[in-house]
Please model this.
Amino acid sequence: MKPRPAISLLIGIRLLRGAGRAGLARFLLMSLGCAMGVACLAAVLTIPAILSAHDSRAAAREPQPVTGALHARSAADTVFLTRRDPYGSQPFTRVFVGHVAGDHLPRPPGVDRVPSPGEVRVSPHLREVLAGQPGLAGLLPGRIVGTIGPAGLTGPDELYAYIGRTPGQLPASARPLAGFGSKWAPTPAVDSSTLDILRFALACLVLLPLAVFLSVCARLSAEARARRLAALRLLGHSVKGTLRVNAVETVAAALLRAVIGVGVYALANEVLAEVGLPGLQWYPPDGRPTTTVLAVCLIGCPALAWFVGRHRAREAALRPLQVRRGARPRPPKKYGLLLLLPGLGVICGYCVLGVLGRDPSEGPANSVFVPAGVLLAGAGLVLALAPVTAWLARRLAGTTESLPMALAMRRNEVEPGSSLRVVTGLVLLVYAASLAQGLLVELAHISRPTSSTQEYAIPLSDLSDSRRVRMGLVEGVKGQAVAMGSWIPDAGSSEPRITAVVADCAQLAAFSAVPPRG
Model:
């Protein structure tokens, strides 16, 4: 008589609960490893959402000028002026809005109204800085009447302020205000070119090792369950019923691990949002898992565990005697070397060219060879561990004079998968940690607010010739040049513009990484 599906479900749950102390310890260790992998997966999938939220709020508050053919400023216009100055390693942004009190004005996000003349609204972090540095209030003419909400800030550590003035108190360079909001952020958290590299790194160089790591954990669980499934098959359970028991046990365990992993990430997000990363800080809601992230973690990870453990469960159901007797496994295949050798060849070739003084990082081929070399080396390292382990164990067993060492090496030679599973997890952990560290370093270098060099743009009409010369002699100024921008009638600020720089070779060299010639 074939067992009903409900009985198979009950058997799978009982096997999950009644595995003994050794089984419980193995289950807890496996749950910890899978939870770490799921937490890393959730973090990787949430990074683009954090950057998108940063840029969306920066674009939503950007003041937009009135555009039109030869639009001239009049006394009835509401005007604005943006000033961005450095405060240590952080940018300090002030938006001056010149208007007459009582005018109906479009309000920026994060505030209930535009500050009246003589009033100032600041970010919470700027208010804390002002409490410790009262002299900074000289850059904020007026009295502080409130703070800016999270909807109008890119992060909790931002220094931002809206300053209300009358139109006559702002210089002629102030432009008529049409409203707030733009399609693009003026200073994105990550450059567009670097964002493409970051997306590729997250998709291929981080998600791939995490998928293999979760697969290894699922395979370890399948190895531990194989003997129990074979015993059920020998007791008369059908093949389909045995596979159903394995599916229940696998999915239930993987779902519990996924829930723990998502919970660990959610807790880490609340903590890291307060501390921040180098050059980037965000609000906790920005980093909370979305519906898509929850679906990938809570559905994709159990599905991956079931798919990986299905092969071993089918083998236990079809050949239970072979599994129970512990038959000698097949020798490991050597096809992993076909991936490892080309990957190491590409990496070593780049290293040799760098030592010889020929920089290979320029050109379109670099965007293909470097990712291909890293992916081939990473995948080949995992797949080649089994044959390399068997070869090393055979050589060591033939040369050692210690009986325990010889027995241990012979066991590794016969069954290299036991060491393979342990070493694979360690290699993948180091691999993922190194990539994560590289991404954090890259974020720290490309984040503009932490740059050690600051640029100042001052209208040329506000400076006389003598003042411009004296500004170039100020200590710490590395270079100066004159920039001119074209004005396109009947075009918004999102339209392309032409910018020309007037300078000699010495001045251009101060702004360019490559010295100009000719």
